[in-house]
Predict the structure.
Amino acid sequence: MSLISVVKNIGFTEKEARVYLACLETGSSSVAEIARRARINRVTAYDILEKLIKKGAVNFMNQKGQHGKRILLYDATDPAVLASEAKRRAGDFRLALPDFKRLRGDAIHPGIRYFEGLEGIKAIYEDTLGNRTEILNYANSREIRTHWPTYDEEYVAKRVKGKIFLRGIAPLDEHGSWVKSHDRENYREIRLVPGNEFSFTNEINIYDDKVAIISYKDVPLIGMIIESQEIANTQRDIFKMAWEFAGRSAKR
């Protein structure tokens, strides 16, 4: 696939792609040089450069040229920045898929959103911060902090600030014990179950009409959010049984 085709695939027109690549190739250049490299006339080049500036794909600076005359020099935005922005926009679109489906009348089936990598997993946690109910949680206290060392500072602190209470069940090990010891200041209640019987390599969060599932053993990390009132209610009932068991287990 040609570079022009690649650039067009992220939303550029043919001429915009040619001008962007010309800017990338020439570095800081005048509109005349860019127009020559892009094989378009100068007036068209000015128009396209203005559009690319608005898209954040090109920047410019005013520089003194020969005989003291001021000229505009244009430079292309780093392709890595454009790639990151394109990925972010695609992620936003993917997150909105259940809403698009509802608009189309596809709300009969539960909405399922898939996530990948640490940034995707962070997006799942971010989704829990907008809920209206407490969070019911099965988790391995070690796994999330291994993959996301600043989890407590970046997520738990936000949950506490938002006054979103969490009830959780976790394996009884040094990590689970440490987490439970900080329950009061972190607006939660954790019950511990025998770690040799329940390892919880996956995490489940139940909140509002959603169930979020995260797998920490897959590479890259994967997760999903299932949006269904019926599924969420069933999972709440199952959690109630597990919660009672964990309470009895802690008294042994």
